Task: structure prediction
Amino acid sequence: MRKEIIKAIKELVNQNILFAKGGNLSAKYGKDQLIVTASGKDYSVVKEEDLIVVDYQGKVIQGERKPSSELPLHLAIYKKRPDVNAIIHTHAIWPYVLSVTHENLPPVSDEFTILLGGEIKVSKYEFPGTDKLAESVVESLGMNNASLIANHGCVTVGRTVEEALENMVVLANFSKVYVLAKIFGTPYVLPDWAIEKEKEMYKKWHGLE
Result:
């Protein structure tokens, strides 16, 4: 699992989705533990030993560093969504643009809707690292695979680290498409019948029926 997380971090860094010390990743580890990234670690030089093992109360089981300050967010999502096994939070530029304008990302692409579940909502603003932020994001996430975090970037989830990574890349790319489309013209959302069909595909694919 550690290798998968490090691999995902390197890919996110390469795509300029994860940079400097912003953002965090986690994944379920065994029956009642998580592996989570450490607080304040530069992702360009992160190593396996920088990852922290915690329990579902947030107690450190293994590791010398402090776990991410957004650990409450990860714990809240895992509690609400038993289908989720991995979580990625980043300050990716294009989703961040939407998060600071408090604008939802509408379903403008078939791929986007099938993978992420439909319109991606912005959470209500709460202070970073708090239980209130965690509660707000759990609400905006719903049963989708992504949420924008008001004035604080975005989060994606998945059944695996690889899936959470794919969802983050899709979210970052289609946020860019949407913002640029608004600059150059009028973005057209998919028709209702297509959205409904693709939401059913999303539910079936993710076992949420």
Summary: The two ends are 28 Å apart (CA to CA). The longest helix spans residues 161-184. The CA atoms of residues 95 and 175 lie 5 Å apart.
